[in-house]
Design a protein that fits this description.
21 helices, single chain, six-stranded mixed beta sheet, alpha/beta, elongated, about 65% helix
């Protein structure tokens, strides 16, 4: 919970005001039984109506004042808890945005969602109660003991016995529940993971008719969560009847012992009424604390999970004093003897890339091709610093990208990912995602180059047409073309296309590449592709085979010198195309 306390510091003033108000509220609650005792002793028994009226009016005013204070206290408490939760969500979200792929894979997307939502909600609910109960309950408990002893010392053992039993009960429940709370949150992660996979892959599930298998998988995760929840809830279900029993036994003891004292003329009957009310206040104080014992363990587990995210150090480190790129930045990309292995790979696993060296120059197109899993997309991810190289270096205009500020690095690169990803909104809002200040002409040029103009104009609303979550109301080819247009709106000196033409038909592919070559002169372009037809006209082709460069040159050069490239060409091109 220490991390949560750090986020409470900005609300210190509000918390102090809450403490003062709670002290007033507790004081009001503690003086009321005294006035009740005076009404019985000095008003009812002697028959003094004026005493009853006077004390009754005072009690009414105190009750109204207590209600007003409670309302203000509730407002401050809600503002504090909500503010802390808001700050935590923002901190976790910003932290996740700074994560590299390695950290995201470490936690898993489903767990990060749970930590940002469910875990923080647990902390918020507990904090809202804790600010009140951990301050108010001790005041009531201690104050009640002092006031009760002031009325009658001889019956103090009753309250002491009830208090000891309550403390023991809370301790036992805490010991039993804490391990289950830890498992509870992990099982929520698991359920979210299964649900998320089913929703995102629902078409695959239907295509392979595996609905029954997925139902069983969900039922298993749901059953494990329900069993854990049931155990915890059943454990604490014992608490209500036990507390009720303690309360009733304590009441009976106070009445029974008090009656004996009254009959022996050792105490006034009004003091017994007051002592009884103080006893109830003390027990209810421990009841409030015991409720916190139910909530705090789960909140502590959630807080630890939030802390784990916030304190995770990214594997991508940036210099405190980054180097600036030259004012006459050209966009020369150079890989020098780059070797890379994924962070979670074991020492026995082979490196994904080994001794990769090539240079991509402005005004030229560099293509990367090879078999599936040979590391083509990884090359682009390393240039974007989604991962860092294990050895060697990647340079922009001779400057190691590890010496650059991340924003300056990314501002120089327009990236089209392998999986086209659109955001809910409109076509225009997706295009402006790359540059919110882009002019209308820049948008039109990007759309024209990406061959998107026809289908955008055919949509109701044109550029204001709705884009559903993930772009689910667009075809694969349309999503790819909008993603390409979005990158072009950025007007960057370097462009990375990660197999970004795979969903396009050959005609659209050819038109788009021709437009890129014609309109984007002077830019450095790196294209990852599976189809040789997409990269035949590239100025330079890098052929990867098992993470190593198997060939480097133009299409015609590689057809003469690179066996790997010739094998790919033989599987994709007819004889006439291979000889072109």
């Amino acid at each position: 919970m220490s991390k949560v306390f750090e986020y409470m510091k900005p609300y210190t003033g509000m918390i102090l005001c809450t403490v003062v108000l709670l002290a007033m509220e507790a004081g009001f609650a503690l003086v009321l039984p005294g006035y009740m005792a005076d009404i019985v002793n000095d008003g009812v028994l002697p028959g003094h109506i004026s005493v009853i009226w006077r004390n009754g009016i005072i009690m009414l005013l105190i009750t109204l004042a207590s209600m007003a204070v409670a309302l203000v206290t509730g407002f401050f408490t809600a503002r504090t808890a909500t503010g802390v939760a808001n700050d935590l969500r923002e901190a976790v979200f910003n932290k996740v945005l700074s994560f590299s792929n390695a950290e995201v894979n470490k936690f898993a997307t489903s767990s990060l969602i749970t930590r940002t939502t469910n875990d923080i909600m647990q902390v918020q609910n507990t904090l809202m109660m804790a600010i009140r109960q951990f301050i108010y309950a001790p005041m009531i408990g201690i104050g009640g003991v002092i006031r009760a002893l002031d009325r009658n010392v001889s019956m103090a053992w009753i309250i002491a016995l009830a208090t000891i039993i309550m403390i023991g009960l809370c301790a036992i429940l805490f010991i039993i529940a804490l391990p289950k709370y830890k498992a509870w949150q992990k099982l929520i992660d698991r359920l979210n993971l299964v649900s998320r996979e089913n929703l995102s892959g629902i078409l695959v599930v239907r295509a392979f008719s595996t609905q029954n298998f997925e139902k069983k998988r969900f039922a298993r995760a749901n059953k494990e969560l329900a069993t854990t929840e049931l155990f915890v809830n059943q454990t604490f279900a014992f608490m209500t009847p036990i507390i009720a029993m303690i309360l009733n036994i304590t009441t009976a003891l106070i009445v029974w012992v008090g009656a004996r004292h009254v009959s022996a003329f050792r105490v006034d009957i009004g003091d017994i009424f007051a002592f009884l009310q103080y006893g109830m206040l003390i027990i209810f104080a421990f009841l409030m604390i015991s409720i916190m014992f139910i909530m705090v363990p789960r909140a502590a587990v959630s807080a630890a999970r939030i802390k784990e995210v916030l304190e995770t150090e990214g594997t991508i480190r940036y210099r405190k004093n980054p180097l600036p790129l030259p004012a006459d930045f050209k966009g020369i990309v150079e890989f020098r003897d780059v070797t890379f292995r994924y962070p979670d790979a074991s020492e026995n696993d082979d490196s994904v890339l080994n001794n990769i060296s090539f240079t991509a120059r402005p005004g030229k197109t560099t293509a990367i091709i090879g078999a599936t899993g040979c590391g083509k997309s990884t090359v682009l991810k390393l240039l974007l610093r989604f991962f860092d190289v294990n050895s060697g270096g990647i340079y922009l205009d001779g400057i190691d990208i590890r010496d650059l500020h991340k924003e300056e690095l990314h501002n120089k690169i327009g990236y089209v990912p392998q999986k086209a990803s659109l955001f809910s909104g409109t076509i225009r809002s997706n295009l402006l995602y790359a540059d919110k200040d882009a002019t209308e002409q820049k948008i039109l040029d990007a759309v024209e180059i990406s061959q998107s103009e026809a289908f955008i104009q055919g949509k109701p609303g044109g550029y204001e047409a709705n884009v559903a979550q993930g772009g689910s109301n667009f075809s694969g080819g349309q999503k790819q073309r909008i993603s390409i247009a979005r990158a072009l709106v950025k007007n960057a000196p370097i462009y990375l296309f990660d197999d970004s033409f795979s969903a396009l038909d050959l005609k659209t592919d050819a038109l788009l590449r021709a437009a890129l070559k014609r309109k984007m002169q002077g830019c450095t372009m790196l294209i990852v592709a599976q189809r040789i037809s997409t990269i035949m006209d590239a100025d330079q082709i890098v052929v990867l085979d098992n993470g190593r460069i198997a060939g480097l040159g133009s299409h015609n050069e590689l057809m003469k010198t690179c066996e790997v490239y010739k094998e790919i060409a033989a599987s994709q091109l007819d004889g006439e195309e291979r000889n072109t």
